[in-house]
Amino acid sequence: MNILAIGDVVGSIGCRFLRAHLPQLKKVKGVDLVIANGENSADGNGLTPVSVQFLFDSGVDVITAGNHSFRRKESYELYDSRECLLRPANFPSCVPGRGACVVDMGRTQVGVINLMGTVYMDSLDSPFDTADRLLADGMPKITLIDLHAEATGEKRSFGYYLDGRVSAVFGTHTHVQTADECVLPQGTGYITDLGMTGPVQSVLGVKPELVIEKMRTKMPVRFALADGDCKMECTLFQIDEKTGKTVSVERMQIQ
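^ that's the sequence the OP posted. Answer follows.
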């Protein structure tokens, strides 16, 4: 089974680029399931009913999120109504939505878990403990986890912690694709960060001059998305359906 994980989709420009290139990529690579982080899919951060539907209509099967999950109030009801739209499972139980889902593929089932790191991030429940709880409650043999986190050390530690217990662990949030894709010793596919889907000439999707102004002056600056040529950074996990282990990991950048 081939499962494609796509890095943070940034704004409407990133959504349009994904729609233009995902169908062909799915065909060429024989992709069975697509997971994309959509927490920045609306212009100005967060996600909206429009951006979520756009991603689903473009061929994404499961949308994960992160620290911007609840930036837009119009998304709150959506988290409860769309089973394949996730927010981090280690948020308090009182918030809208769910942190895991199971996709019925007919011949097999695929579980997806969304978690958020706590190093340099919001103070949430431990992603390690939350993962233990969800796996103990029962997830399919093929299960992948999006850990939306800042710190490389936290992500790599998390990958080794779950090695052999899940099919793959991939990181999101930094918008910078890492070059450490691998299959860990016990068969879990891993990459520290998938990267970003959005404008190439940008700082994490934002116009560089605005970020520079913020860095230099420390004054409030209204960010705006960059434009121009885009890229879609993603990783393909080939998974053995009998064992749930990852056979190979392929990191890609589509421009």
